[in-house]
Every structure is written in structure tokens, then in C-alpha cells.
Amino acid sequence: IPKRPIPRLSCVEAQDLLGHLMVVAARTAKAQGLEDGYRLVINDGKHGAQSVYHLHLHVLGGRQMGWPPG
């Protein structure tokens, strides 16, 4: 848990925090049975569709994803 609030990705200063988020996301995906793959999403700011201003990421999986997203 960060010592200070981090409202969005563009405010991150510590790279080790981002690595930790990725590792936890990978563990979460594995625990959810997403062995065939998954997508990680971090929304940043108004134009990035961020609605909760606290740094977090989304683990999306369980179906084939398309490209481009959105």
C-alpha cells in the first residue's frame, strides 16, 4: 500500500511500484484460471477514460480480445 495517494499512472515516480502491480496482476490472472492469456489495462486521465482517481489496473480475460481495443 503506497504511503501517499497516487491518483494516476502519470503521477508515478517509483518504478518498483509498477513492477509490483504487474506481478500481483499476473498472480491474480493465474488464480482466476486465465492460462490462455489476459490483458492488463491502466486508464490515465480524462481522455484515457479514468473514472476512479486512484492508481489501479484491470485484468481482462476469459475470452479472445480484439485489436484495436475500444
TrEMBL record:
It holds the Pfam family HIT. It comes from Cairina moschata. It comes from the Eukaryota. GO terms for molecular function: catalytic activity. Belongs to the HINT family. This is Histidine triad nucleotide binding protein 2. PROSITE patterns: HIT_1, HIT_2. Gene3D superfamilies: HIT-like.
